[in-house]
Write a structure and sequence with these properties.
4 domains; 13 helices; two-stranded antiparallel ribbon; 57% helix; mainly alpha
Length: 344
């Protein structure tokens, strides 16, 4: 008969990717105080690298390292954080599919030196005007891409509405409202950053959050040699993407960040300057809730949903030549009128 399981027994199971998420045990199940430890595989490889590699040997090495607290343990996100990360990743995948469809249509139009309409989806009268200049295969490609754009756009809107609802949940309400008060952070960027960060108490300082984003330059220092290279790209890639996107918005709409970006662009490539702005955004004290002592203005669910709906319009107005201040005034007026109509 096998011995009964006790609370002192140790189980080691190597898994890849997200296989561990379906194996999280219930705490104190059957009287056993269980816990799950997730480690960084890259650092474990540096610690324990042997010529003989089998599953049994790997499990034994992991057990020995864990017994003396030498495993590089990483943080296990709770279910609300995993759900938010999955929703943000789903939206990003949908946006990529929409971009691919748009680019295929534009490539066909460019091939025939045809003018591109301002709105490819809503106003499809342009398609009837160029039918004669397209081959049957090109007409089929454009028709399929146009047919796919409508459901993809509807799915993106549904995901963004769900993000707006999550921003008003008990788990995210305070942090989302605080991050959205910073320059460059709309509701999409705010929820993306919060999902990537997870528990803000893990970071002792804003600088450590900047290091977690992977936006710091790599350093090669030894003796008299001190060199800095490309950014490390450690940490979560979705956090870097959200911070760079927020930096792009801050540079376009905030005069303070615009002046800093122009000053950096005179000394380095604009792309590097934008990454530097993103790093400074990550190091803001207001980005982490526990570092901000000011009161946070709460936003209601109707206003959060309106913010999601109006974000693309501001960017479109700026691209068409409207200045940032005018675009923000128009956005505010539309927001107030929409909220008034929703709230009665």
């Amino acid at each position: 008969m096998p011995n009964p399981i006790s609370s002192h027994d140790l189980f080691v199971s190597p898994h890849g990717n997200d296989a561990w998420t379906g194996r999280l045990p219930e705490p104190n199940a059957d009287g056993i105080d269980s816990r799950v430890v997730i480690v960084d595989a890259r650092q474990v490889k540096l610690i324990s690298n042997a010529s003989v590699k089998t599953d049994a040997q790997d499990a034994l090495r992991l057990a020995n390292l864990l017994s003396v607290n030498l495993l590089p343990v990483v943080w296990v996100p709770p279910q609300p954080v995993r759900d938010l990360r999955a929703l943000v990743a789903h939206r990003e995948a949908l946006c990529k599919r929409r971009t691919i469809a748009f680019n295929r249509i534009r490539s066909v139009l460019n091939r025939h030196n045809l003018d591109q309409p301002d709105d490819l989806v809503q106003s499809q009268g342009w398609l009837a005007l160029i039918q004669a200049q397209l081959s049957p295969v090109e007409r089929l490609i454009i028709a399929d891409d146009l047919a796919s754009l409508t459901p993809i756009s509807a799915s993106i809107s549904a995901v963004e509405s769900e993000l707006a609802c999550l921003s008003q949940s008990n788990h995210w309400r305070t942090q989302a409202a605080q991050v959205m008060q910073l320059s460059g952070f709309g509701i999409i960027h705010a929820m993306s950053v919060l999902g990537a960060i997870g528990d803000v108490s893990r970071f002792d300082s804003p600088e450590k959050l900047g290091g977690y984003s992977g936006l710091f330059p790599s350093i090669d220092q030894s003796g008299q040699k001190d060199r800095s290279g490309r950014i490390t790209k450690e940490g979560r890639s979705d956090l870097r993407f959200a911070l760079v996107s927020a930096a792009r918005s801050a540079v376009r709409f905030d005069p303070r960040w615009k002046a800093l970006f122009d000053d950096m662009s005179s000394r380095m490539h604009p792309h590097k300057a934008l990454v530097a702005i993103a790093r400074k955004l990550a190091e803001q004290k207001g980005l982490i809730g526990k570092f901000a002592g000011a009161k946070v203005k709460q936003i209601g669910p109707s206003l959060a949903l309106v913010c999601v709906c109006l974000q693309p319009r501001v960017g479109h107005a700026t691209r068409c030549g409207a200045d940032a201040a005018s675009a923000r005034r128009k956005q505010t007026n539309r927001m107030v009128s929409c909220v008034s109509s929703v709230c009665g």
